């Protein structure tokens, strides 16, 4: 009897797969040919994994990661994660920052952050860093508000 | 009396879990590319297989959900749902332990980060699905 239930389950799954394949052939083909990854940025290995507060603190405590503040220099001046470098996204895009000078090691663990969930600058900074050959990138999306709220070490004038 | 209560509980759980699976599946069917991006963000499925999973998984959810609600092949459908939930729970725990801060992608339009609450919810549904499996008559 159990075997019958398993066979029925497999048949239902098969039927569902067939419906999926018939209704979404483009999605499957684009994915198999790699077009999905190219045109829609759908990939199993994102450029920079988004990490949560606990993971960011773990990297901070290990002391090997370099935290990069993607916000403006004035926001950085007020308050930033202790030890973080100021790398404003706009300055990077306008090539006002010499990344090779401040981050000579392309294998360094880099954690980009900005001002929290509504902020895209950390993600964009990570993309730019990836373009320039840096490989061990993370985005701490919850950013400065979460770090401050947790009472973790900060520096600045505030 | 107990048998009647059991029967109502059985029906309630069937409608609740079946309904949730249909709702979750339909949301993904309506936005397949959005779902593909969510699958990619978990960093678990090979890039070239993401489309296959995004196209088929929602239909498995919908068919299994329908079966559980309508009482058609209830045992088989609840087995599918509990198996799916077991896999989801494992993936959620793994992703949470990896420190990834991503949306669970459980339901379309509901922005929820992976965390203990989402894992507990899935665990409750998993036990609900097992309850359905244990009560359902083989057909």
How many strand segments of chain B? 0
How do the helices and strands follow one another from N- to C-terminus of chain A?
HHHEHEHEEHHEHEHE
Sketch the major β-sheet of chain A.
5 strands, parallel
Number of contiguous helices of chain B? 5
Global structural class of chain A: alpha/beta
Ends apart, CA distance between termini of chain B: 26 Å
Strand content of chain B: under 5%
Unreliably modeled segments of chain B: none
Strand order of the largest sheet of chain A: 1-6-5-2-4
The total of helices of chain A stands at 9
Q: Which percent bin holds the helix content of chain A?
A: 40-55%
Mean pLDDT of chain A: 88
Q: What characteristics describe this protein?
A:
heterodimer, A: 158 residues, alpha/beta, Oxidized Rhodanese, domain 1, 2 domains, five-stranded parallel sheet, two-stranded antiparallel sheet, 7 strands, elongated, B: 139 residues, mainly alpha, 5 helices, 75% helix, globular
């Amino acid at each position: 009897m159990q075997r019958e239930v398993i066979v029925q389950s497999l048949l239902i799954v098969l039927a569902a797969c067939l419906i999926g394949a018939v209704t979404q052939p483009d999605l499957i083909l684009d994915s198999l040919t790699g077009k999905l990854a190219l045109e829609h940025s759908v990939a199993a290995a994102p450029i920079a994994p988004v990490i949560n507060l606990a993971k960011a603190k773990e990297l901070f405590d290990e002391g090997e990661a370099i935290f990069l503040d993607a916000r403006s220099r004035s926001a950085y001046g007020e308050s930033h994660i202790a030890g973080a470098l100021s790398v404003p996204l706009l300055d990077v895009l306008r090539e006002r920052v010499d990344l090779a000078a401040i981050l000579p090691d392309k294998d360094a663990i880099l954690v980009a952050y900005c001002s929290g969930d509504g902020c895209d600058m950390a993600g964009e900074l990570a993309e730019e860093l990836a373009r320039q050959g840096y490989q061990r990138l993370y985005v701490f999306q919850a950013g400065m508000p979460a770090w401050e709220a947790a009472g973790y070490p900060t520096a600045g004038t505030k | 009396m107990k048998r009647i209560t059991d029967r109502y509980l059985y029906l309630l759980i069937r409608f609740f879990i079946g309904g949730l699976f249909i709702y979750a599946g339909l949301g993904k069917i309506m936005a397949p590319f959005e779902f593909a991006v969510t699958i990619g963000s978990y960093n678990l499925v090979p890039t070239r297989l993401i489309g296959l999973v995004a196209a088929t998984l929602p239909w498995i959810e919908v068919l299994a959900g329908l079966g559980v609600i309508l009482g058609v092949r209830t045992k088989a459908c609840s087995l599918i749902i509990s198996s799916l939930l077991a896999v989801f729970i494992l993936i959620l725990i793994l992703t949470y332990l990896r420190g990834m801060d991503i949306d669970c992608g459980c339901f379309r339009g509901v922005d929820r980060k992976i965390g203990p609450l989402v894992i507990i919810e899935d665990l409750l549904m998993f036990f609900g699905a097992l309850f359905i499996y244990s009560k359902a008559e083989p057909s």
